[in-house]
Task: inverse folding
């Protein structure tokens, strides 16, 4: 099968686009890439003048349709979908190309997606919050397909003494600053803890986390070492009372693929995938988080049993190859039904 994948390559670090592309090719399919953020005009200018943004967006979508006509793929798969216009989907379908959407982001900017979503042949969602939104709009065909891991990138590694000097902590967190994350992690300020990620300079001046944070973006080759050097990896999901978010973070699967012990907040989609005390452990609040960290630091054998079980589970069932395989199976089954 020839697959035209619309996604985004972040020039600053390796993102999940790379893992999806690798999975498609590893499964024996022909991959055609389209970067859906190849705007000509800078973002500030487009934000200031909506007419220029619309012009550049239309130009981008024309480029996509032109590429599809040249390559004639069997399937167009849009990851995210925010920048794909309804008329683009109509043009692709008129050319006999199957179309599928895989929503991935927290639904902050979902209006553009909702305009095109009814036109796709298949809908997949990384988080169940997107499925709920689609159902509310009368779209009942969305299927949950979470993020995953790529074992070639996310894996146990041998660390040099220099790496251990830089990264080794009892407890680690990798991710952007958000107020809810800061509140939770401040409960662990008394532990040997490291926090890596952008925007942690927003911490209040008196925060006990000031000495724990390394305020910078971290690429996979760094955070793989961080996870391998840690005894406990904390996963705290994005939370905003005005924006539903149930999805399991990519970092969850990636940390488990590094054979790390993961202590995760009580996130709905994670609860549906993993069992507490089996593949990972959950915490409810600051008090519970602090107690769980103390418990699992002391109970080494139990911690190692859980992280080993989690590692085996993600490699068996939660790789991007498994995700792509599942989606293509559903797409092909739907196509077969339509042909009858």
Result:
């Amino acid at each position: 099968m020839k697959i035209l994948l619309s996604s985004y390559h972040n020039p600053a670090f390796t993102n999940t686009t790379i893992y999806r592309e690798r999975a498609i090719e590893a499964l024996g399919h022909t991959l055609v890439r389209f970067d859906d953020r190849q705007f000509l005009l800078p973002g500030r200018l487009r934000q200031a003048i909506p007419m220029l943004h619309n012009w550049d967006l239309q130009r981008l979508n024309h480029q996509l349709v032109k590429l599809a006509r040249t390559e004639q793929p069997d399937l167009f798969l849009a990851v995210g979908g925010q920048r794909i216009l309804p008329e683009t989907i109509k043009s692709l379908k008129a050319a006999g190309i199957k179309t599928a959407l895989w929503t991935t982001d927290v639904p902050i900017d979902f209006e553009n997606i909702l305009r095109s979503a009814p036109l796709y042949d298949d809908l997949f969602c990384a988080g169940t919050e997107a499925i709920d939104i689609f159902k509310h709009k009368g779209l009942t065909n969305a299927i949950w397909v979470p993020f995953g891991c790529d074992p070639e990138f996310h894996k146990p590694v041998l660390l040099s003494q220099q790496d251990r000097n830089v990264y080794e902590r009892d407890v680690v967190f990798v991710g952007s600053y958000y107020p809810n994350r800061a509140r939770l992690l401040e409960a662990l300020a008394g532990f040997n803890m490291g926090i890596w990620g952008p925007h942690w300079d927003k911490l209040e001046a008196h925060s006990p986390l000031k000495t724990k944070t390394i305020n910078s973006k971290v690429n996979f080759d760094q955070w793989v070492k961080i996870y391998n050097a840690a005894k406990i990896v904390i996963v705290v999901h994005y939370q905003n009372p005005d924006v539903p978010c149930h999805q399991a973070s990519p970092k969850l699967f990636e940390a488990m693929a590094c054979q790390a012990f993961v202590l995760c907040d009580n996130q709905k989609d994670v609860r549906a995938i993993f069992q507490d005390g089996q593949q990972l452990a959950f915490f409810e609040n600051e008090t519970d988080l602090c107690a769980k960290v103390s418990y699992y630091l002391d109970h080494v054998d139990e911690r190692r049993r859980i992280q080993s079980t989690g590692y085996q589970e993600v490699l068996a069932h939660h790789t991007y190859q498994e995700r792509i395989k599942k989606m293509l199976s559903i797409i092909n089954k739907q196509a077969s039904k339509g042909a009858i």
